[in-house]
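Mods, move this if it's the wrong board.
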Amino acid sequence: MAEAADAKREGSKLDGMIVRGLREGAFWLLATLALILMIALVTYDMSDRSFSYTGEPGRYDNWIGPAGAWVSDILYVLFGGPALLFPVLLAYGGWLAFKQPPEGEDDEPG
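Not the wrong board. Structure tokens:
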């Protein structure tokens, strides 16, 4: 009987570690995406070939390249200046996923 309780507690610790690792992974993934999106939006250049402008063949001035030029152009066409809030919202979503305590656990120690 005691062995079953010990195994259950050990499994519970392992489950908690897995959930914590997945949350941390989600945080880092969303933080990275937010950083890439912010760089794409800040280095937006209207002369890059993208969704709304065919542009001249050659290099892209957007630091993320063609994908950054397209994504930033679409976001600026659809939302304008508030498009800069998207990276902030992505980073905040990652932070919320990371800070959320596992089910059944309290934030308070003890």
